[in-house]
Amino acid sequence: MAITIDDQYIDSLAPNAAAAKNGRGLLQKKKLVALYRTADDTLIFGECAGSGKSNYQCSVDFIQQDKPVSRCTCPSRQFPCKHALAIMYAYAAGETFNEAPIPEDIASKREKLEKREEKKEEREQSASTPAESARKKTASKNALKKKIQAQLDGLDLLEKLTLSLVRSGLGTADKQVIKNINDHVKQMGNYYLSGAQNELRRLSLLLADKSDPEQRYTAEVEQLSRIQALVQKGRTHLQARLEDSELALDTDSPIEEWLGHTWQLAELEQYGLKQEAAELVQLAFVSYEDAGRQEFVDLGYWMEPDKDTIWRTFNYRPYRAVKHLREEDSYTGSVKVNEWYRYPGDLNPRIRWEGEIPSSLHADLLARVRQQAKGSYADAIKTVKNQLKNPLADAHPAMLLHVKSTYKGNNGELYITDEQDQQLLLGNVQDHSFPIPGTTELLPYIAQDGLHDAVWLGVFQHHVDTGQLLFQPLSMIGEQEIIRLLY
């Protein structure tokens, strides 16, 4: 969609005559030092010299042709400001705009704008006539089809990149290869594939890391396999959606989030994923930095006292906004919620609620939680391995296990056993995408009643190179308290 604007149209957007005059003046004085446009000609942006040392970053977004959105880093409260007007005057005058990928911050703002527009459209549809509703629904479906097709195009581009990496070999990756991957990271934003952005960025970070080449190479191969799985499974899913008359979302797996979809609470309710009142107990909590997502993550593990599902809550704090976002607190008691929402997922689905009533943690509540612990490691391992067959599943599923005993092996390694004396190796998770602190070294400081005939919450990791499956304890659920190894 090409942008079609002229001076008269730009004048109509200006907040006043002075702003229009000043915008033209910036163009005439050649204050625009860089001009760019996206490949689909829906965004123009660039840099404009100002009174300070740094140039102003300004843009005008025409993703909605009739509602252009201007943005600028200048302190002006006018929209569009003179810098954004100058960008538009330059475009109308036929100045050269070099093609460039959409900046990540604008891609994120577009997604938020899209969500607001979808909500607005839903409200309008509910109040309109049946004929109008049908027309608007058709328009919405057409827009969604275009988005899905764009995602398919993005997956094609991603596949070409992964195939070239396989042909050349990861061991030969140099600075130019890493730069090419980072360029593709930016391009994925144009195709609404934020999940692919995260995974490509993880691969880039691994290739740039020069520590422990053998371990790093294994991680690189796993990461490349994950990206290839995203291409294959994502393409199959998107093609199936296009063939579906309702273009329905998948609520049985996390594929939508892998492809970049941000679930809204209204959507979860629409798909029957809203839950009624419940009491939830937080069993463990950890905060860590996810460089792939470029966010800090606050992760909580929760249970309903009489159900065996381990739920997860996530609070994401992007790098660029971390100063303005509060880190999530851990909960030492239980919380009562009137309604809550479950996200599509595997063994440990994400949940979310708004508003809770805190309650104390008492022995009866802990006893009901302890009753949900898995007594057979063979069954637990089978369940975990079935999940890990899917490269896009959570690589570190959490489980509540009953521990009959803990002992040290001949080489100093630690094991736990179940009632059938089947053993499970203990160890610390080592994963660039899930960099939580180690805990197994804390076990010698735990009292004996926490190490034998006990209930532990922990996460699994499968080591591809050795074939070993290990378990990292996160907390011990006792009869009177929860001993947390992570905070």
From TrEMBL:
InterPro entries: Znf_SWIM. It comes from Paenibacillus hunanensis. The keyword Zinc applies. Residues 113-142 are annotated as: Disordered. It comes from the Bacteria. Residues 113-125 have a biased composition (Basic and acidic residues). Keywords: Metal-binding, Zinc, Zinc-finger. This is SWIM-type domain-containing protein. Residues 56-92 form the SWIM-type domain.
